[in-house]
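Example 3.2
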Amino acid sequence: MDCVFCKIVAGQIRAKIIAETGKSMAFLDAFPLTEGHSLAVPKKHYEKIQDIPLDENADLFGLAHHVVSKLDKLTGATLMAIHNGKGAGQEIPHVHIHLIPRSTADSAGPVHNMFANRPKLSDAEFDRLLSKLK
C-alpha cells in the first residue's frame, strides 16, 4: 500500500514521533499550519472514522487526549479536526486527527468562518434532517 501514514507507522518514513500506543501513533505534521501542529493516526489503515473498530477508536482518541494536553501548553488552545473522506477535504485516505495549537493571532478564526455558503434551514427542514439522522 502506498500510504504515507502506513509507511510512517512501519518506520519506512521518518517522523518526529510524540507518543504512541500499541494501536495509535502521534507525530509532528511535516507541513505544519502552526508550531506544534501534530497528527494522531491509527496504526492500521482505515479511510474513515466509522471504519475503525470501537476499541481502536477509543485508543486513538485516548492518544489524542494525551497529546492535546501537551499541545495546549504551547498556546492554551488546540483545534482538533478530522476530514472524514475525500469530499470533506481528506488528502491522505488514512484516518488522521489534526491537532493544531491555536491562538487569536493565527488568523484562522472559528470553524464557522470556513463556509461562505451556509444553509439557512427552517424548523421543518431541521426536523426532516433530524429524522434522517436518527
